Amino acid sequence: MLHFIKADLYRLFKSPGFYITLLFLSIVQILSILTESIGSVNINNPETSGQTILEGVKWTADYSAQAISHMSSILIYFGLPIFIMIIGFDLSRKTYKNIITIGITRSQYFLSKFIVFALAFLLELIFYYAVCILAGGIKNGWGNLNGDFQLHLLQVIGLQYINMLAIFSIATVTVYSLFSGVGAVITAVVIPLAITIISLVTKNEWFNYIAFQLNSDTAWLVNMNEVHWQNNFLYSISTMLLSNFIAYCIFKKKTL
After folding, report:
1. Whole-angstrom Cα distance, residue 31 to residue 36?
2. Which residue stretches of the chain have pLDDT < 70?
3. Residues ≥6 apart with Cβ < 8 Å to 198
4. What is the pLDDT of residues 216-237, one digit of tens each?
5. Residue 200 near residue 44 (C-beta atoms within 8 A)
6. If we measure between CA atoms, which residue out of 228, 191, 231, 233 comes closest to residue 213?
7. What pLDDT does residue 207 have?
8. d(Cα 76, Cα 215) in Å, to the nearest integer?
């Protein structure tokens, strides 16, 4: 399985699509920092939106990171090409059959694909913040990048990471059920947005915990001593594990 993971990572890092995705992501971020405006593909509460919180603030490196954290939902869209390249491509083309018949088991195939995507998306998330901190620092100065900032940033990245993995895990169920990259894309875009709308309209506490897209965009407000963030963390992990378990069970029953 380790050789298969290495081979997948090698193919990913040799793929022009991976670097084109990162290029367009960095362009969006740099434009946002240059104009000091936050774009979003999510429906936000005006009271907790980054544009409201950072109004009148100079976007130094530290504040740029805070601002960009409020538009992290764009990583769903920039993560989808990587998701399709790693998980969706072989399934939609049915080339996974060739891989399984040469000695790797279905469980090894499934687990290795998840590991490769999880690593790739983590790299993309780190790249996301590295670009914004560099751009903000070069444009307006570095601000206060002290230990407290770094610790908080790590918490934010960690929380956004598991929320995003929960979203992509739901899409994993679709891609292994239908062998359709298009279906997975629709799932990853529509379901989180629908849950966000429901959570904002109904004010239902349970929906707030599983509004992964909204929680990712507001993760800079994280305080792990608060019940909301503790529950969001648990629901994200639970959703990720349950969705992948369901996807694996479906994949296991598929005929070659």
Report:
1. 8
2. 39-56, 256
3. 204, 207
4. 999 998 887 788 889 999 999 9
5. no
6. 191
7. 87
8. 13
